[in-house]
Amino acid sequence: MSKHTGDDEGQTSVFVIGVTVVILLFALTITAIMAVNLQHRKLLSLADSAAQSAATAFTIVDPEELSVTITDASASQQVREHLQTLEAEQHFPNVAVDSVRVVGETTVQVRLTATAHPPIVNWVIPDGVTVIAEGTARTQLDDSTQ
What we know:
By secondary structure, the protein is an alpha+beta fold. It has one domain (11-138). 43% of the residues lie in helices and 24% in strands. It is built from 3 helices and 5 strands; from the N terminus they run αββααβββ. The protein has helices at residues 11-55, 72-85, 88-91, and strands at residues 59-62, 67-69, 96-103, 107-116, 129-138. The protein has a 3-stranded antiparallel sheet. Strands 1-2 form a two-stranded antiparallel sheet. A hairpin with a 3-residue loop joins β3 (96-103) and β4 (107-116). The longest helix is centred in the first third of the chain and has 45 residues, at 11-55. The radius of gyration is 26 Å and the shape is rod-shaped. The chain starts with 10 loop residues before the first helix and ends in an 8-residue tail after the last strand.
């Protein structure tokens, strides 16, 4: 058997380097998660504004009863125009309108997808992360002259 001499020089340095690497990887992961979360929030805001814009593309069915209707075609057209006006392609890589649905003649649901590219960790996920956001808006007329 060999006798331990008690010379532990350099052991602390290895431990400190290892802990530092783990902490840096943890910080990079948190940064990437926050970047994707921020991109999702921005896309959600865009989906809400697109739905609100589409909800204004209504036609009045009966002026006496203040009833309105929104068609799928007019809502889709309004969403496309809204995204072009805001130049969404410049702010969101690969932004696409997944669906535009009109529910109950007055409610518009818009689903958008985009790609988020987290900083620094692009070499781990070079294709980015697909982000999906849904926005809903409703049109309701109110006779406030009474």
